[in-house]
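Appendix B. One record, verbatim.
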Amino acid sequence: MIDVTVQNFETEVIAASMQTPVLVDFWASRCGPCKTLGPILEQLEAEYAGRFKLVKIDSDQQQELAAAFGICSIPTCILLKNGQPVDGFMGAVPAGQVRQFLDKHVPSEGALAAEAEVDEAGALLESGDTAAALAKLADALAQNPASDDARYDYARLLIATGALPEAAATLDEPLKREPRPLRFDALRRWLDAMLFVQNDARGHWAPAQFDAQIAENKRDFDTRFAKAQTLMAASQWTASMDELLEIILRDKKWNDEAARKTCVAILELLTPPPQRASAAAPGKTAGGIELTGKAAAQEDPQAALLSSYRRKLSMALN
């Protein structure tokens, strides 16, 4: 438990909530119910062993903070995640009710363990130990089957290493959801391209064979799409999108918009994962406050490439 003032609010609440949920207890020494609730919160903080952080704000001494949160009565508890209030409750509620409140928002022990496994897998992958990374991701998914991050990373690495049946099985659950999550749909389309190369005779054609057939008929979309799939399977992403854009320019609706959907999938696959919430965005504090001056970040080449192809896709569709 930490006492928070205006001076340390940014660090102890906003920045901290980027990594761990923060429960803010607004209280005052004159408040009887506050003295009942306080020990309950401290006991639960110890019980949850770091899965959330408890801070206390004296609403009498820190009126600016109390006003900012619109506190009308005490005790009032506000839960923050990623710098934003997400839920709260008022009054000296019993421990069981507080526990129910926390369990709606605080990650389980299994979820935290899975997150740690995913982080370790990333480090192993960077070091070149792909087999160990796969094992870590499999463990992460076993510990927390609800972790979409673990499932996505595991399926993506399975596809990249050619374990296609295992990847298909891993993708089965999220692909049944409505609406289908974009990042899992992107993996499925990459997997389809890999299976096309594996199972279709055209999967082993040289580029010149595709080009010769397309030259005879510019609207031979099936051959263009086959070429795009072979390029996608070979991680020749921009060349694949160039072929897909040619289809879209000539017939946007061809084959249930397969060209557009695959182009969107490639853009999704090429988009870097979001930065960890604990890291402030360039040009901002952890609380999201804009900074001025030369700190503004320049667009990196990958971002520029993605922007370029998003514009091309938009123009082709209009």
